Amino acid sequence: MLMMVQPLRDAIHTAKAAAGEGAKVIYLSPQGRKLDQAGVSELATNQKLILVCGSLRRDR
């Protein structure tokens, strides 16, 4: 998936400003590690998370 840089940058900047210092940004990707219960438990140890996820649209 292709995302436009400026809107994504603006959204992350706004989310980080709202969350405060120490926010961790994670991009969820189909090519990445599978997000299972262990991964969720690991992420849950963070107080401030910003999850970035895109969607893939396929024409049928």
Automatic annotation (TrEMBL):
Q: What sequence ranges are listed for the domain tRNA methyltransferase TRMD/TRM10-type?
A: 1-55
Molecular-function GO term, any one = tRNA (guanine(37)-N1)-methyltransferase activity
Alphabetically sorted, this entry's keywords are: Methyltransferase, Transferase
InterPro entries given in the database record: Alpha/beta_knot_MTases, tRNA_m1G_MeTrfase_TrmD, tRNA_m1G_MTases_N, tRNA_MeTrfase_TRMD/TRM10
Instruction: Give one Pfam hit by family name.
Output: tRNA_m1G_MT
UniProt KW Methyltransferase keyword: yes
GO process annotations (BP): tRNA N1-guanine methylation
SUPFAM superfamilies, per this entry?
A: alpha/beta knot
* Entry GO CC: cytosol
Record's keyword annotation contains Transferase: yes
Name of this chain's protein: tRNA (Guanine-N(1)-)-methyltransferase
